[in-house]
Structures are given as C-alpha cells and as structure tokens.
Amino acid sequence: MSRIKTYQPQNVAFVRGEGVRLWDTDDKVYLDGLSGIAVNGLGHSHPHLVEALQTQTEALWHTSNVYRITKQEELAERLCQLTGMDQAFFSNSGAEANEAAIKIARLYGHQRGFEKPAIIVMESAFHGRTMATLTASGSRKIQAGFEPLVPGFLRAPYNDLEAIEQIAENADQIVAVFVEPVQGEGGINTPADDYLPKLRELCDKHEWLLMLDEVQTGNARTGHLFAFQAHNIIPDVLVTAKGLGNGFPIGATLMSNRANDLITPGKHGSTFGGNPLACTVANAVLDIISDKTFLKEVQNKSAYFAELIESEIIPLEGVETVRQAGFMIGIELDRPCKEMVKLSLDEGILVNVTAEKVIRLLPPLIMEKEDIKTFVTTLRQCIVKFLEM
C-alpha cells in the first residue's frame, strides 16, 4: 500500500451518504454519530449545498487572492455581521486558521515592543498538527518526535482562572490567551458558565488578546452559531473551520478589537484560501445554520439527546460521567474503550473514542428525534456488550 499510515482506519469504506446515513461498499447502512469529526453538521449530500457547489463549479473554481473574490467578500461580511467581528482571513483548515491566530498574537506582541511574546494555552487542548499548533496543543502524544517545539507558549489547567492569574504574576510579555470554549479532542470538557466571561475580563485587565478556537464548537454545534455567543462577549480572535464547509475544506480567522489591522499585505497569505468554491459552499451553509429556527431546533434536539442518555446510558455500571454541549457529547467510562469504535460500527452506528476513555458523539445537527432514539438505543447495547467483555 502506497498511502502513508497517518491513521489506522476501520476496515470499512463509505461510498454514499444522504442526510444522517452512510452506505458502505457492501451497501450496509450506518447512522452517522461523528459527522466526519464535527464537519458534516448538515449531514451528507444536503440538496442546498449540492446545488450551490454544482452551480459554482460550472462558473469558476480558482483565481487566487491576487484578485478580488466576490464570494469571499460576501462570506467575510456575513461572518463578521453574524459574530460581531470586524475582519476575516480565509484558509483551508482549522490548523491553518489557528496558525494564523498564533501569528496575529506574535504581531500584537511585537507591536507592543515584546521581543518574546508568549501565549497562554490549556492542558488537554487540541489546536492542530502544524508545528505551532501541535505545540499549543496539550497532548504529548502528538508532540513526541517533533522536538524542538515552538517556543512562546505557557500552559495552564483548563477551567482554572486562578492558575492564569498566577502565570500573569510570574511571567512577562504575555500577549494572549488561546482556548477552546469546549475541549473536543480532550474529551468534551466543558468549563464553568463564567469561565469565558472572566477570561474576557482578565484579557482586558492585562491588555491580552482573547483568542477562541471554535473549529469544533462553531457553526451551530453547541446550539449557538458560535459557543461564545451564549456568554455575551466578543473575542479578539475567533477561529473556525470544520462545519463551516460541511466537508469542503475551509478555515476562517476572524479579528476584532485589539487584533484589527495587524495583518497587512505581505504578512500572511494562502494560495487556495477563500477560493470561489469553498466560499460558495460556506455561504450556503450559513444560509441554513444562521437561521434562528434552525438553532432552536438544535437546542431542542440536543436536550432530547440528553434526556435519552440520562435514562438509557448514565445508569449503566461502568459509565462514570456524561458531558454535553449541544451536539457535542462525551460519555466517559471507567476504563479505556477504543474497542467501542469497531463494536459500534458492527452494529451500524459511527462513534469515536478520545482521551482513551471517552465515547465522543458529534452527530449531524439535522438528526431527527426518531433517529436520535435509535442511535442511543443502539449505543446502549454496544456499551453493555463492551462492559461485559
């Protein structure tokens, strides 16, 4: 096999998708509880997205950012209007978008006269696999073998404001706090309700940038268009990707307040970022997920998920805790459970395992209650079977 083994894929290949279902090469059908790891929020082959992409494909694919791209301008304006941000830069992935955020923080620090600007990041965080983003992440597993890592990061426990204050007292040249509103890869770790607002206060107090990685939490996954919008704050830098393109690669780094106008011509760029195809799809996604009725439905259905999990899953011996933020659900068992991925696959549902013991669910936001019930019932059977192994 010529493909490099960066992953250890399950022995299944999907050839067709429609809504919340996938079909493999043997025509077996599966309920998707992973959404391509929080990507396919609107499911598979959504008619509105298919039509938008087909129309744009027939018109124009690529011209480069040497020229104006009207679809990109439209997307930037819409995202800023919907989020309260001011400026946007487009790339091709969450890692690239986070890399841009890190560069913005460095620019901000040098503007303030700091020779070695430092960014506070969190334990158990995940920001990507480029050299800077894997350094910012809190996983030795993804860092091992790539030393020396990028300097300029200070690490704090997640959901611990006092620790950040202590870092501020003992370190100088801090320029930003970089944080996920909910840690996805870290095991669906949800902070206290006042965590983000108090981080905003801390950043204002010290003149730091508040940079939010909403690659996974954004695009309606938590029941809000972006998770920070539940807390009545505005970040200085907002990063998103994944669900913004529903499977078409796109990343976005949005700026406001202290981060405005730091990127000037020549400071950053992307060959493919913000091309007409990607921006057309992202605009079509926003047509749907920015609708208040759609967001309310996501909130209602995530509450139904919670009800079923409380009655069907939590009582099981071996289930330690459940953490949920909208359509981000983590079911932590009392033992490592990577076997749950294949066991669930065999029963026709897709799940993921992260942080060794956490069954991670990231279903499409369009999953209806009937399918939610089927999914949870099947998942319960799989957990019972696993715990008896």
What this model shows, in words?
The protein has 389 residues and is of the alpha/beta class. It has two domains: 14-32 and 292-387, Aspartate Aminotransferase, domain 1 (Alpha-Beta Complex); 48-289, 3-Layer(aba) Sandwich (Aspartate Aminotransferase, domain 2), CATH 3.40.640. Helix content is 37%, strand content 18%. It has twelve helices and 15 strands. The longest helix has 21 residues, at 292-312. It starts with 13 loop residues before the first strand and ends with a helix.
Order of strands in the sheet with most strands: 4-10-9-8-7-5-6
Mean pLDDT: 97
The number of helices is 12
Specify the overall morphology. Answer: globular
Provide the helix percentage. Answer: 25-40%
The CATH architecture term of the largest domain is 3-Layer(aba) Sandwich
Rg, Cα atoms, Å: 21 Å
Total strands: the figure is 15
Q: Quick one: biggest sheet?
A: 7 strands, mixed
| Class inferred from helices and paired strands | alpha/beta
Element string (H = helix, E = strand): EEEHHHEHEHHEHEHEEEHHEEHEEEH
Query: CATH superfamily membership of the largest domain, which one?
Result: Type I PLP-dependent aspartate aminotransferase-like (Major domain)
Give the terminus-to-terminus CA distance.
Answer: 33 Å
Number of domains: 2
CATH topology of the largest domain: Aspartate Aminotransferase, domain 2
Extract low-pLDDT stretches: none
Q: In the CATH hierarchy, what is the class of the largest domain?
A: Alpha Beta
